[in-house]
Fold this protein.
Amino acid sequence: MRSDDVPPPSVPDLAQSGPRRSTTTWQVIRDDVLARIRSRAWPPGELIPHEAELAAEYGCARSTVNRALREVAATGLIDRRRKAGTRVALNPLRRATLHIPVIRQEVETRGARYDYALISREHVSAPLAIRSRMGLPPQTRLLHVRALHLADGIAHAYEDRWINPQAVPEIMEVDFARISANAWLVQNVPYTRGELTLSAAAADADCAACLLCAPGAAIFTMERITWIGDQPVTLVTQSHPPGYAISTAI
Amino acid sequence: MRSDDVPPPSVPDLAQSGPRRSTTTWQVIRDDVLARIRSRAWPPGELIPHEAELAAEYGCARSTVNRALREVAATGLIDRRRKAGTRVALNPLRRATLHIPVIRQEVETRGARYDYALISREHVSAPLAIRSRMGLPPQTRLLHVRALHLADGIAHAYEDRWINPQAVPEIMEVDFARISANAWLVQNVPYTRGELTLSAAAADADCAACLLCAPGAAIFTMERITWIGDQPVTLVTQSHPPGYAISTAI
DNA sequence: CAGTGGTCTAGACCACGGT
DNA sequence: CCGTGGTCTAGACCACTGT
């Protein structure tokens, strides 16, 4: 920051959880804005000063204020519109970034040995539930691959995957005993779009047997669908044993 | 009309000169970078051109390239380090933004009527599990509030909440039959930090009774803890009936 | 129309960290 | 050391949209 002649803004200094390490101007502005919103100095629905005004207040360029406010807007706490200005969100629909674990890494960073075990591989006509989920017509044949991810030999995740050979014909030649479907797809298929769905499900017989839990036990599932253009590539459901959780800061 | 029949550049023809249609320069660069990564033109681990080089290619300012690459880096697909340059991530730890629903809105946007029903309110000594989760010493007394969120009269979420009156003394006077704990806290408590944990759990007897499902049924739970500074404010667990899921684009 | 945010530039200095 | 990204500036024009 350059102009030291501007007094520090009179922001109610909320109790900080940790030491403030943000030294850059835009981070200072961002944190001040967050503090003013959370302290209700700027209550929900309120119009906050526009960029030029804040730039003057902080003695910085407007683009620096823009950067700070853009970051705040990304969390959903403020609503920005041209001409209308910037308002504190009335019902802050919070956005949080979720770090989606890559199973192998997840296992190995715990210091455990990672193993992959193929359970089954079949080329079959897709069941209705899978077809409709992937948006495929009747009679479509899909590759159905089931596998287990192991941490030090014990089950870490049960994977039930459907692959559309029309999108990736080469998949039919892959030996899933040697390379996991996920690893092969990650290395060979540049998907253009994906969707992730988190839910809870009761363990079915197969899943329970693999994860060593009771049938019907509460299982955390992550379902992913990926497309190349409009063509669905794969639908994969990864089920984690009871106790699994995923966290993020908000 | 100029010759727009040029196919979408697989290796993008750079040196833009004409006006942009619907996307801005930084978005074009971002999309090109994503396309080159996904098409493996830039394979995992590869060093990509540095900012100045890309700026020259696109005929734009370096800060515009910086904006584009910063957005890509936010998704975890590239790793940027000073002096070392920018590399395509070897194991892309994917980041996805999760939109955390505000229950009332979630219900009302479905066109359903929202209702809130208080089940119980007690001022009790905190159980060990709750204390340790919130990082509170033994003997701490907490306000325990259980409630139900209803959509058109049927259960949409079961809420089990613990509130620390030391952080928010006024909470003891609030009539939870009139206003939900969440609504009151959102309006009155500027938390500085929060943590969200998603998991699956088996429905306990109370939860099952409220959500009209079998005891032990797989329940999707969202647990939130918020702090003011170092002081924990509230720990809330919201449980959703079987079938509930939360989605995001990746 | 006019006010506001969104983008962009052509520079500049600085912080980090590999060599 | 010195190359690279991170930040910042003082402007500028444009796009959107409320009045």
DSSP finds seven helices and eleven strands in chain B. The first strand of chain B starts at residue 47 and ends at 48.
